[in-house]
Every structure is written in structure tokens, then in C-alpha cells.
């Protein structure tokens, strides 16, 4: 198989909302086969409408990242349909904002499972196939919070720092097999996850919701604008490219200058 004759297949977790949906739109426009995933009730309809609009082949899986068996089934179904899965975008994520002393233990476990452990599991389930075909692109959607901390986000910051660590190990182990692995570290992107946070942050900081955006969120960024999803999508597309193999093991900030300070 030459690179030109292959229609690449990308599996994007959490691709029926927010950043994942933005990434899916970019890959769809570039004619990739897409395995959509997400828990949105309208997930199947979202996936089919993007596929129709862009004339691409697709699969939608409602696999829940809390359950490893469902993730394995999603991979098996994808391999059965397309024969190969070439790019994995570990994007599904959840957040909870609370001081450590009040942080619910079940929320800690859930955040670690969805934001970190599920990424390891999917990488593991796809590894053999990527190794055999000597092509794999793994893109982990970490966060500026994979590089820096903010108060009241203990589980999220721990999970995202862990995800960057895992990214580096996968880069080392994948290098001999043309599998690259990189993390993208966005600043604030206005998605349903961030809308929820505005409410929670207002409670934790004891300030009105309107002030959370300027005083807490964008205060960290030099560019006082939310990061566009298209920017994250186009960076993911670049990292997924045929020639991006030597670009590996990185954690790339897309954060409006947050990390420049
Ligand atoms: P979002 O809430 O819009 O989307 C999250 C997606 O993950 C949804 O499709 C949801 O169904 C899916 N998901 C959640 N729990 C799941 C589970 N148990 N099983 C399967 N799917 C599940 O959020 P978003 O802002 O688009 O976040 C996407 C990723 O980007 C997350 O990893 C998040 O941490 C990261 N991120 C977001 C921002 C931001 O400002 N929005 C910044 C940095 C990083």
C-alpha cells in the first residue's frame, strides 16, 4: 500500500461535542474515515450528518470511557469495518472544580479514568495493529493544565500532567514503528465543558459568573480570547500527517500565550 492509496481512519473520542467535534470536522473536510464517539444523546445524528455533508465513511460508537470493555468493542468494531485505525485522538474529558478538602472521591476516580486511563487503554488496544502496519499517530488532548496548575482542579491537573507523561513514554516506545505520540495543550476553548466550569468556578471563587471569564479564565492568557476549536483541529491534522513521524513526544501549548509567562 502506498500512502496515496490509503484512506486513513481516525478514531476521535468525545467527538460529538466541543473540541472533539471541531477536530472531527477538520478531518472530515480532509476526507478521513472517522470513528465518532461520545455520550451525547444526539451523537449518532451528529456523526451521520458530518459524514453525509463531507461524503466520508464513518462509524459512531457510544462507548463509555468508564468501561474498558466498551472501549475494546469500539476498537474491534472499527477494525472490522475499516481494516485499520491509523490515528487515535484521545479527547474525551470531564472536569470538576472544588477545593481539595471538599473534592468528591468518586469525581477524582472518574476524572482519572476518563481523562487518563481511557487514553492508555485505547493506545494499548491499537498498539499491535499500528506497529504491524508501521504507521500510527496518537494525539492526546491534554491542556494548559497538563503543564501548569490552577487551584480547585486537583484531579484534572493530575490527570493532564499524567497524560503528558504517558505521551512521552508512547513516543519512545513507538519511535521504531513510525508511531508518533504528541499532546496538544489548549488554553480556554468555549465548549460545554467550559460553560459548566464558569458556574462551578463562580461558586468556588465566590464571584459572579460574568467575572469568571475575565478574572479567572482569560486572565491567564495573553490573548484575551477563547482558543478557536479550528486551531486545535488543524494542529491535530498536522500531527496526523504522513511526514510528522519525527515530531513526537511533545506537549504543544495552544494557549494564547499563557505558557509564555
Ligand atoms: P465537552 O464537554 O464539550 O466534550 C467532551 C466530550 O467527551 C463529549 O463528547 C462527551 O460525551 C465525552 N465524554 C465525557 N465523558 C465520557 C465518557 N465517560 N465516555 C465517553 N465519552 C465521554 O468538552 P471539551 O471542552 O470539548 O473537552 C474536550 C477535551 O479537551 C477534554 O479532554 C478537555 O479536558 C480538553 N480541554 C478543554 C479545554 C477547554 O477550554 N474547553 C481546554 C483544554 C483542554
From TrEMBL:
SUPFAM superfamilies: NAD(P)-binding Rossmann-fold domains. One of its GO terms (molecular function) is 3-oxoacyl-[acyl-carrier-protein] reductase (NADPH) activity. This is 3-oxoacyl-[acyl-carrier-protein] reductase. It holds the Pfam family adh_short. It comes from Didymodactylos carnosus. Signal peptide: none annotated. PANTHER family: 3-OXOACYL-(ACYL-CARRIER-PROTEIN) REDUCTASE, 3-OXOACYL-[ACYL-CARRIER-PROTEIN] REDUCTASE FABG. Keywords: Oxidoreductase. PROSITE patterns: ADH_SHORT. Its EC number is 1.1.1.100. The lineage of its organism: Eukaryota, Metazoa, Spiralia, Gnathifera, Rotifera. GO terms for biological process: monocarboxylic acid metabolic process. It catalyses: a (3R)-hydroxyacyl-[ACP] + NADP(+) = a 3-oxoacyl-[ACP] + NADPH + H(+). Gene3D superfamilies: NAD(P)-binding Rossmann-like Domain.
Amino acid at each position: 500500500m502506498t500512502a496515496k492509496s490509503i484512506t486513513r481512519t481516525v478514531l476521535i473520542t468525545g467527538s460529538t461535542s466541543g473540541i472533539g467535534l471541531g477536530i472531527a470536522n477538520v478531518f472530515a473536510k480532509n476526507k478521513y474515515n472517522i470513528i465518532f464517539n461520545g455520550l451525547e444523546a444526539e451523537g449518532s445524528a451528529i456523526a451521520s450528518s458530518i459524514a453525509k455533508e463531507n461524503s466520508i465513511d464513518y462509524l459512531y460508537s457510544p462507548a463509555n470511557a468508564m468501561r474498558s470493555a466498551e472501549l475494546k468493542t469500539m476498537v474491534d468494531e472499527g477494525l472490522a469495518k475499516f481494516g485499520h485505525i491509523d490515528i487515535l485522538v484521545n479527547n474525551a474529558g470531564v472536569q470538576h472544580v472544588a477545593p481539595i478538602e471538599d473534592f468528591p472521591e468518586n469525581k477524582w476516580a472518574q476524572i482519572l479514568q476518563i481523562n487518563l486511563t481511557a487514553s492508555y487503554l485505547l493506545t494499548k488496544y491499537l498498539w499491535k495493529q499500528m506497529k504491524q502496519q508501521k504507521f500510527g499517530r496518537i494525539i492526546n488532548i491534554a491542556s494548559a493544565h497538563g503543564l501548569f496548575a490552577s487551584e480547585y482542579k486537583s484531579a484534572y491537573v493530575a490527570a493532564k500532567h499524567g497524560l503528558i507523561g504517558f505521551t512521552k513514554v508512547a513516543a519512545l516506545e513507538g519511535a521504531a514503528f513510525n508511531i508518533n505520540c504528541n499532546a496538544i495543550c489548549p488554553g480556554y476553548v468555549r465548549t460545554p465543558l467550559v460553560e459548566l466550569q464558569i458556574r462551578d468556578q463562580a461558586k468556588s471563587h465566590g464571584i459572579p459568573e460574568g467575572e469568571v471569564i475575565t478574572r479567572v479564565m482569560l486572565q491567564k492568557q495573553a490573548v484575551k480570547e477563547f482558543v478557536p476549536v479550528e486551531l486545535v483541529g488543524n494542529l491535530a491534522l498536522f500531527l496526523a500527517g504522513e511526514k510528522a513521524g519525527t515530531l513526537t513526544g511533545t506537549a504543544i501549548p495552544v494557549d494564547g500565550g499563557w505558557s509564555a509567562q
